[in-house]
Structures are given as C-alpha cells and as structure tokens.
C-alpha cells in the first residue's frame, strides 16, 4: 500500500501538473515528466510518442498471464481557471478542470506499488493518453504500431456531485457517443436594399434549426436516444448594408450507440442539404470531437466491481449512462475494458467549471482500486 511519503509526493506531483497544463496534442512537458518518473520507477519497458505524445510503461511478471492496461489522460482544457488556488494554472487560458492531473497520479501511484512488487504473471501496462478532450487521442494510439495488444483495460474518472466513497459502475454503455458537426452554407451577397438579388442562407437557417432540434428524443441508455445541441451560429458579416451570402451551423450530435450515431449523422446532413438545395445554396460539412460510445465489457465490469468493493467503494448504477462522452470507449476495440466513476465530493464544482480542482484525497483510493485489480489478474 502507499506510504504517507508516497501520498505526499503524489499530491505535490498533481499540484505541479495542475500548474503547467497543456492542451490536447501538445502535452510535451506532461509526457516528459511522466516518462521520467516511470524510468525512475524502473519500468521494464517504456515507450514514448505513441499516437503523438502518448506514454506506455510495462511491469512484467515472471510467469505467463494476462496483459492488463490502466489508462490516464494527459491533456487539459482551453478554459481560464478561477483565482484562489495556490497551485492555480500558470498557463493563460488553459487549466486542468477535468481532473486528468489526478488520474495521472492514480496510475503513477500504481506504478510505485508495482516497482516494489512486480506482478507474478502476465504484464501490467500503464498507459498515458494524449488528446482525450477532443476525442482524437485513443484512435491515434490504437493506430500506432507501438501500442501492444492487451486483454483487459481499466480507467477511472472522478465524478463531482457524488460523495467520496461512492462510485458509479455498470456493464454496457457508460458514456454516450458524440460528434461535432460544422455545416457551411454558401450563396451570394447583395445590397441590403435588394435582398431578392442575393442567394442568402437566412431562410435556410430558419428551416434547419428547428428540424435539427426535432431529432432529439429518448433518454441516455435507450437505443433510440438522440440529442442535438446547437452550439454556434454565424451568418454574413456585421454590417447593415449587406444581405448575407454565407452561414455556419455548429451542432453536437449525441447517441447511446455508435450505430445510432451513424444514423443521426445521415439525418442531420439530410436536413441541412435539403434546406440548402431548396434555396440555391452550396453546402459542405466537417466533423470534429468524434467520440465513440464508451461501453463496459461485462467480464471487465465484474472484475472492476469486485476490486472497487474491496477498496471500500459503495457501488451503484444510478445516473448511468452519462450523456457526456469519454475517449476511453475506443480502447474497447482492443480488449475487455471497463471504466468506473469515483465520487469527488457532493459539493464540489462540476467538471469543466472554472473553479474545479481534483480532490487530492481521491488519489490514494484510486491507487488502491487499481492495485486491487492488478493483483486479482496478475497476482
């Protein structure tokens, strides 16, 4: 188990990571810091630069056995942190407001324990993923030939609004799939006194917005669940003398399943295309922040549940699945995976709030849970 010195050092590390956050795909200092600490722990193998800035370390047992992966995320958010913390972000407009700094310390804490007592069998992989926040990091790591196969994969996410000592877990969907759709409508401008001479997207927008919103239905967890959120609109330029000739619509699409997402994409594009054609407009699309549904494997979930109870957590499936997305879902294509949400405090600000800070006293329970899983599978 962790010593008091371990906990103090991991707490100091988390606060240091919090002071120096890095955005998705630019986690160079964070990755270098993690890799250096893993070298100091004597990891049997160490890879860097996987899928960008990803880091992977192996702690091997003497006997054949399963390969078990534990994941943490390296990136922070493009949000200005509120004043007040002594370890407040030093990077303007960037902050660890999702708790990834704490997740890193949970996996590194497991590395400390493994460095003192190797697995008896198999191998434990400690994986540090870049670019979780924009949904691109897991796919990039999976596409990298350096990433080995694994039998099981596990991750935690802190869950503010839920008391510490409580946890949320279920087999099946844990987080919804989502994607950002940006549609550009292009026509032709004219003088504001002669709007009939323009090909303007004004009426197209008026038709598109209610039709997109009408696609929303059901509740998370239902196969038919759909949610469309309009996140940004723009049209023309800020001038009174010009009838606009172009517009952009940004919308986030959300479903419980990847199959549902494929259908929702086609429906959303059809609505925009039909409205554009009716009014003589060209249209093109691009897609960003593409997250697969995060689905817990039943066998991995059962193992996670046993370890969580052994670590003292009280489990429930209330509030699941979450509408928010998680890039961990893509690792389910490689092995049996499960994620658990650990209570970060009932009165703590929500994730992505300007005053959110991962609770330091959740580090040790995270390590205890991970270690219990590692011991169950690799001895």
TrEMBL record:
One of its GO terms (molecular function) is metal ion binding. Keywords: Hydrolase, Manganese, Metal-binding. InterPro entries: Amidohydrolase, Bact_exopeptidase_dim_dom, Peptidase_M20, Peptidase_M20_dimer. SUPFAM superfamilies: Bacterial exopeptidase dimerisation domain, Zn-dependent exopeptidases. Coiled coil: none annotated. Residues 178-277 form the Peptidase M20 dimerisation domain. Mn(2+) binds at residues 98, 100, 133, 157, 352. Its cofactor is Mn(2+). PANTHER family: CLAN MH, FAMILY M20, PEPTIDASE T-LIKE METALLOPEPTIDASE, PEPTIDASE M20 FAMILY MEMBER. This is Amidohydrolase.
